[in-house]
């Protein structure tokens, strides 16, 4: 857990990087023709703790700051509202800490049919590997690929007009991430990319964006434990997401 001093330090780092143009992708212009969204769109962020980011799970209202959490999803949603003022976008965060693909699938009906999102953004995969590594899960890369494909097929079938954004699972080699993660974890990134090529309307290269950030500052500045982003890392992610989605 970051201390307040660390939060302020990283926030200052973000501000400085934005001011100099370093490390951060420029968000897409607010031109409707360049965006996957349209006025009045409903946007759903889905994933594990990286998306959850401490959100208040009792909040069901769109655009609620507590309900959006403190991570990239909240920052991306704010960016969307800034890029598209007057569009009345409705953003929801339904990420749940610890989730793997099959757990997203288990709760899909509970809100997807109700919200009928125009765009669904999914970031999932780190727990599908990490929990296997620590003995809490027996799924394999094939389990991940099969479960993820089934979820996407189901979504395409039940919500045929919904845009899909798949995000790249990522880790940085610091904290909990050591040599045991390699070369196996990159297979999960590759599997997600292959599924994005087949099913998605956009791919968000989080690993690439964070690797680029690490060229200027060490990994712990962006993800203190190698998995969960700091405020600065969350901003890098939000910028990459906005660039991909528009």
What are the SSEs and their pairings?
Layout: H1 4-20, E1 42-47, H2 49-52, H3 65-68, H4 72-83, E2 90-93, H5 101-115, E3 119-123, H6 126-133, H7 141-158, E4 163-167, H8 185-199, E5 202-204, H9 206-213, H10 231-245
Parallel strand pairs: 1-2, 1-3, 3-4, 4-5
Helix pairs in contact: 1-10, 4-10, 5-7, 7-8, 9-10
Describe the structure.
The protein has ten helices and five strands. The chain is α/β, with parallel strands linked by helices and 246 residues long. The protein has one domain: Rossmann fold. The chain has a five-stranded parallel β-sheet, sandwiched between helices. The N terminus is likely disordered.
Characteristics:
single chain, 246 residues, alpha/beta, five-stranded parallel beta sheet, 10 helices
Describe the structure concisely.
With 246 residues, this protein is an alpha/beta fold. Helices cover 47% and strands 9% of the residues.
Tell me roughly what share of residues is in helical segments: 40-55%
CATH superfamily: SGNH hydrolase
Order of helices and strands: HEHHHEHEHHEHEHH
Any guess at the CATH architecture? Answer: 3-Layer(aba) Sandwich
Number of domains as seen in the coordinates: 1
> Tell me, what's the shape?
globular
- Based on secondary structure, the structural category is alpha/beta
Please give the count of helices: 10
The poorly predicted ranges are 1-33
Number of strands: 5
- Strands ordered across the widest β-sheet: 2-1-3-4-5
End-to-end C-alpha gap? 31 Å
């Amino acid at each position: 857990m970051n201390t307040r001093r660390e939060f302020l330090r990283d926030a200052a780092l973000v501000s400085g990087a934005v001011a100099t143009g370093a490390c951060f992708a420029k968000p897409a212009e607010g031109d409707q023709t360049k965006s996957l969204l349209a006025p009045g769109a409903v946007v759903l962020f889905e994933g594990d703790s990286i998306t959850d980011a401490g959100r208040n799970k009792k909040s069901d209202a769109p655009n609620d700051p507590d309900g959006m959490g403190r991570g990239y999803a909240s920052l991306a949603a704010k960016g969307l509202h800034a890029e598209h003022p007057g569009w009345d976008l409705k953003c929801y965060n339904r990420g749940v800490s610890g989730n793997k693909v099959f757990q997203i699938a288990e709760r899909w009906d509970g809100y997807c049919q109700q919200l009928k999102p125009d765009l669904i953004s999914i970031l999932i995969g780190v727990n599908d590997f990490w929990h296997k590594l620590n003995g809490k899960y027996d799924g394999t890369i094939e389990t991940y690929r099969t479960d993820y494909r089934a979820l996407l097929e189901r979504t395409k079938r039940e919500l045929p007009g919904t845009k899909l954004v798949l995000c790249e699972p990522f880790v940085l080699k610091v904290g909990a991430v050591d040599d045991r993660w390699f070369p196996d974890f990159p297979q999960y990134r590759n599997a997600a990319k292959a599924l994005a090529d087949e099913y998605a309307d956009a791919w968000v290269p989080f690993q690439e964006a964070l690797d680029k950030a690490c060229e200027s500052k060490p990994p712990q500045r962006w993800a203190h434990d190698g998995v969960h982003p700091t405020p600065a890392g969350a901003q890098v992610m939000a910028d990459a997401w906005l660039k991909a989605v528009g």
